[in-house]
Amino acid sequence: MKNNPEADEEEILEKCKECLIATATSDGVVRAELSALERDEFEKWKHVYFNQQHHDSLYDYFDNQGTSSVPNGHLLIINTFSNINTDVMFCLRKFSCQVDKLSIFKTEAQLSNRVKHFWSEESNDQMLILQCDITTVSTGCIKLAKLIIEQFRKDFIAKKDQMEHIVPMKHACIILHIHREQESTFSSFNFMCG
Questions:
Q1: Backbone angles phi, psi at 133, to 5 degrees
Q2: How far is it, in rounded angstroms, from Cα 46 to Cα 192?
Q3: pLDDT grade, residue 9 (50/70/90)?
Q4: If we measure between CA atoms, which residue out of 77, 175, 158 comes closest to residue 119?
Q5: Is the pTM for the entire model greater than 0.90?
Q6: What pLDDT sits at residue 160?
Q7: pLDDT at 71 over 80
Q8: CB within 8 Å of 167: residues ≥ 6 apart
Q9: InterPro entries from the entry (predicted)?
């Protein structure tokens, strides 16, 4: 309300609900029908989730986001129940991607070098996808990877602003592969957390 004093509380509440529903899983949205929500409220947010937001596929999501419309690029963390061996390159067929699995890196230096390569002028890739299976990779490693991505991205943006020629924007996405049967032992991640 401080940033936008003209927005009323109802408008802010609706925007918060929309953002919250964007983080839900499809089965969670369906189960919400059994909650204490009023029927109209449930139907409204079910419609938003399945018809207005883009949860169908990774390609659908990125295609809708308009990867070139964000001046400093997207930084995303996506939670999915899909298998870590899913062919992400095939799923994102129109995008030029560097796809890595966090578990293949044995040292911080290996990971840093790979992330550094993505953010360098040598790489023509638009998007860095880092896949993490939360049952085999520690939260500490995921947080370290997030930090490394943020550091090299910051350097890239600073250099990009000083270059005379136009450099296409780059985007980074960490995909957390979650197992339905796994009890929740990991903490929530986003690019805002420390």
A1: -90, 115
A2: 27
A3: confident
A4: 158
A5: no
A6: 83
A7: no
A8: 121, 160
A9: RNF213 (IPR031248)
